[in-house]
Design goal:
The protein is of the alpha/beta class and about 350 residues long. The chain has a domain of about 230 residues: Rossmann fold. It is built from eleven helices and 13 strands. Helix 1 packs across helix 8 and helix 7 packs across helix 11. The longest helix has 21 residues. The chain starts with a strand and ends in an 8-residue tail after the last helix. It binds nicotinamide-adenine-dinucleotide and uridine-5'-diphosphate. Uridine-5'-diphosphate binds next to helix 7 and strand 8.
Length: about 350
């Protein structure tokens, strides 16, 4: 299949592009490197022993996008590109709306232009907001609490409208839970700019000595041990879900939203314990106040993913920690050359 991947050099995109190349798909990556590094692209090539096409461009640039689509004529699109920080989205909401929503409109236009009818979109569990019940199934009301979450909600709606307007269009909206971990090679991984906002990269940076101490945001939630509970998913499993979604989209029309998680919640303290076991390092931590906007518990119902895509997660929390640690140990400064 010929697949145009927006944001294909980023954390999730790079792991997915690697699997796509290994599965012999033809790939064009469209990325502006705003949150990724050419070094990641070089490593994808090295690991796959393939030369995927790459265009450096912004999804808001309709001319660049349209040229890329006319040149490559993809059968399908995987759309990762966008801004993803919950906190930042409250400070610069218009940037988030313009890039995440406006950028997606441009992608759908460019697809129409070359009669490309299939898309897989990176949505997020943040579309659900506070749980009315658990696990979150795909029918749970969506009530996102941040501008970032709302951009995912609106993009889901606009992609759905796009599929309704054309009989042969297909879209899979993958609602990721908490992606963590790294490729087994330890050559690709997560490389956040500045101090990480997310738990796993924070833990690995404490373990490697880049940061002094993890702050646990609250230990008085209604969970097993009082700390926040999340459904962590290995990035390699998440990548393989995209391949399953592409196959599904090749023989279905319409729009399907599908959760991608393991179905199991892990608390912050349980994550620290698993990481210590996987790495042999002690993680220094202190308990601080709750972080604004955090929910107590979030985990997925994964039945639909199995029923529709025949996909389920293979890796558990130990493998997630082990791969994240191997990546951090081998690349203490991420993709930046020392
Ligand atoms: P990332 O920032 O590592 O990757 C995004 C990639 O898109 C980067 O390579 C960046 O350079 C590129 N990009 C950003 N804006 C662009 C633009 N305007 N034009 C072209 N390229 C652009 O993020 P990620 O963690 O790999 O996430 C990928 C997608 O998955 C995002 O849409 C994100 O919202 C979604 N998602 C991520 C998580 C998570 O925890 N990582 C959870 C749920 C959903
Ligand atoms: N968390 C924490 N310290 C950190 C980062 C995160 O205690 O430095 C907690 C956070 O409160 C939540 C869990 O770890 O309970 C996962 O947070 P993350 O930001 O990784 O994911 P999200 O909140 O977006 O689900």
């Amino acid at each position: 299949m010929r697949i145009l991947v927006t944001g294909g050099v980023g954390y999730i995109g790079s792991h997915t592009v690697l699997q796509l190349l290994r599965a012999d798909h033809e790939i064009l990556v469209f990325d502006n490197y705003s949150n990724s590094s050419p070094e990641a692209m070089r490593r994808i090539k090295h690991l796959s022993q393939r030369e995927p096409e790459m265009i450096i461009g912004d999804i808001q640039d309709s001319v660049a996008l349209s040229n890329a689509f006319r040149y490559f004529r993809p059968d399908a699109v995987i759309h990762f590109a966008g801004l993803k920080s919950v906190g930042e989205s409250s400070i610069v909401p218009l940037r988030y709306y313009a890039e995440n929503i406006g950028g997606t409109v441009e992608i759908l236009r460019a697809m129409d232009d070359v009669q490309c009818r299939r898309i897989v979109f990176s949505s997020s569990a943040t579309v659900y907001g506070v749980a009315r019940y658990l696990p979150f199934d795909e029918g749970h009301p969506r009530n996102p609490e941040s501008p970032y979450g709302r951009t995912k909600y609106f993009v889901e709606e606009l992609i759905k409208d796009w599929t309704v307007a054309g009989l042969d269009r297909s879209a899979v909206l993958l609602r990721y839970f908490n992606p963590v971990g790294a490729d087994a090679s330890a050559i690709l991984g997560e490389d956040p700019n500045g101090p990480p906002n997310n738990l796993m990269p924070y833990i690995t940076q404490v373990a490697v000595g880049r940061l002094a101490c993890l702050s646990i945001f609250g230990d008085n939630y209604e969970t097993r041990d009082g700390t926040g509970e999340r459904d962590y998913i290995h990035v390699e499993d998440l990548a393989s879900a995209h391949l399953a979604a592409l196959e599904f989209g090749a023989c279905h029309v319409g729009c399907e939203a599908i959760n991608i998680g393991t179905g199991h919640g892990v608390t912050v303290l349980e994550m620290i314990e698993a990481f210590e076991a996987a790495s042999g390092r002690k993680i220094r931590f202190k308990i601080v106040g709750r972080r604004d906007g955090d929910v107590a518990r979030s985990f997925a119902s994964v039945e639909k993913a199995y029923k529709k895509l025949g996909w389920k997660a293979r890796y558990g929390i130990y493998e997630m920690c082990r791969s994240a640690w191997n990546w951090q140990l081998r690349n203490p400064d991420g993709y930046r050359q020392l």
